[in-house]
Amino acid sequence: MIYIVSLPTVDNQNCKTLDIIAVKNNGRINKINFNTILNCEKGIYGIENYCKKYNFLQICLSNNVVDLSNDTCINNLLKSRLPNCMEVDNQHIPTIEEMGPGKILLNKYNGEISINNESTFLNGTLIILYTNVTIVINGKKFYNEERTASKPLTAILQPSSAPLNIEEFLSLEMLKQLNFHQKKEVSLLEAANRVKYVRIFC
Question: Which InterPro entries match (predicted)?
Answer without folding.
Answer: Gypsy (IPR009882)
